Amino acid sequence: MEKRNLEKSILLELEREHHLKVQEEVRSKLAALEVGHQNEIQRTISAFARLQKYAESRKEIDRRLDVHFQRRIAEVLDKHLSMVQRDHEQKSQIVERRIRDDAALEEAKRKEQAIKEEKLRQERARQEAEARQKEAAKLAAETRKTAFEAAQKEAAEKEAAEKEAAKLREAAASQSSQNSQNNNAGIKVFADKYALEAESRRRALVHNQVPENIHLRKEFAKYDRQIAKSISKLMPTTDNVRSRASELIKALDGQDCPRPIACCLFANKIISIVKSRNTKDKTFGNLAFACGYVMLLVTNQVPDAMDYLLAEFNRVCIYTVPKHLHALNAQARNRDYYRLIGYQEENGQLESTESYLTYVVAYVKLYAAMIQTEIKGVRHPHGLAEGWKWLALFLNALPATTATACALHAFLKMAGFALHKKYGSQFLKILDVISRCFLPALKDQGNKMQSEAVNNLQNYLNDKIYLQEPEGQYLVQQLLSKELFM
């Protein structure tokens, strides 16, 4: 029994030791697993930290790349804009050279044509002289009769000339006393003496050289239609302007129509484009500049035409003189007064003030486009110097009213850029006069149309519009759409 108990005790001891050993191994493995788990957690945390640091570094790199790319984009854009500006300047120079070359070519062709026509005329004269010599005997009997009739005709013409001279003297006397008469009639004339004298001289030229109602005379209808047809096709492209100018120069050089009448027809048709086109359309400015090019090219070849153009401008719009008529009382502000300052009648009714101001703006824009147009190598008979003189006379003599404000803004909008480019600081002094004197006087009137005129002038000065090249000043090669002026 003792032996059996001993074995049992040994077995139990062995089991207990094995059990303890197993527990120890389990504890060791658990400790190892716990240490491994802690290490894995530390590695995970470290990995997350490295990942976060990597993400932040990538964000910094991306930010730097964005700044770099934006800088590169700005540099490329700046280079592109510089190239576009250079390209625009080169195109403008090319257009000017083309117009100048075409003008020289047209001049050469015209001279060549004149030489040919002179030779033909001489040949015809020689043939006619020979024919007259052959028929001398036959015409001898008729000479006395012709001389008698010629004497009668000369007497009639002399009498008509005396009547015409008397009529001109009467017109001159009427013009010289116009101010006093207008004051007596309740109308005060605001204008410089020089401007009134120039207007009177141009009116007398037209009255003396051009018969009345020439548009109704059948003998001139052909030339009237020819000139009107050329001007109706005018568009703001270089090719079109050259073609129209060439056609008009040929029409004014026609042998069958007296030069004064042809010039008068041309002036009337080119300025009446204000009535035939939509002046409120934004493209009217482009058309006005195209007219300016045509008027310069034509008057450069036919200098007499400029006086008739200016006379027509003065007739349709008194502010191109510049001149302003002010009614001193309600009695003077009648239908005759409104007709005198340029209001048009239709079906016995005077147009509205809004319509009148629209046409004033359009006529002044057309006048300003003409005076500021310059072509290198082409002399302008009424260029920027005359525009500068007009601006000075306007501000010195005319009062601040809604009509004068509209006319002034239209002139500055079209010619301000060119005047500032040429006269610089002197032009800025003129603008300062407008800001200090003209605008305050205008604001005192306080009506709806006056408020709009004030805003237009104020915005022109505040935004320095005179630094911006007006749209359409330089012609394009061709229109993007043929319907632009339909």
Automatic annotation (TrEMBL):
Residues 171-184 have a biased composition (Low complexity). Residues 110-184 are annotated as: Disordered. GO terms for biological process: mRNA transport; protein transport. One of its GO terms (cellular component) is nuclear pore. Residues 110-170 have a biased composition (Basic and acidic residues). Its main location: nucleus. Keywords: mRNA transport, Nuclear pore complex, Nucleus, Protein transport, Translocation, Transport. It comes from the Eukaryota. It is found in: Nucleus, Nuclear pore complex. InterPro entries: GLE1, GLE1-like_sf. Belongs to the GLE1 family. PANTHER family: GLE-1-RELATED (PTHR12960), MRNA EXPORT FACTOR GLE1 (PTHR12960:SF0). This is mRNA export factor GLE1. It comes from Urochloa decumbens.
